[in-house]
Amino acid sequence: MNIKLDNIIFLAFFVLTGIAIIVGVIWVIKTEKRLKRFFIGKKAKDLEDTIIALESDIAKLKKSKEEHEKELVLINSKLKKSIRGLETVRFNPFPDQGSNQSFAIGLLNEEGDGVVISSLYSRERMSVFAKPVKKGKSEYELTAEEKETLKRAEVHA
Fold this sequence. Notes:
- The protein has helices at residues 2-38, 44-81, 144-156, and strands spanning 83-91, 102-109, 114-121, 126-133.
- With 157 residues, it is an alpha+beta fold.
- It has two domains: 2-77, no CATH class; 82-156, no CATH class.
- A four-stranded antiparallel beta sheet has the order 1-2-3-4.
- It is rod-shaped.
- The N and C termini lie far apart (98 Å).
- The relative contact order is 0.09.
- The model has no long low-confidence stretch (mean pLDDT 86).
């Protein structure tokens, strides 16, 4: 009985080994077919050239991306300093004469820096004033109309 058990184990070993070999051969054949389809009409030199060209393109893209990122930082810094808020208020400083010919214009950037330009119009003369603004405030005294103009301009900045 011991000999029969050894024979069965021996036979099972050969059958399993045979199955493993057959599965391995089938896998190799399938892989070969897939590789042949992939490489149809291509030579190793063509693939090498393609890989080198792709590597060069990737390097160019990385360099271009870095340049564009630098440009964006520069553009954003310039944009913060550009005029973003612009408002005009017309008013009549002398109710007994004239009309709304006087005005105040507020020009502010994102940081609240800029200028207020105002004009007082009367029949005898016209005066123009410019007052610098830092962080939404001026070191010069502002009229109510100039303050209103700055307040409106800050909303849009």
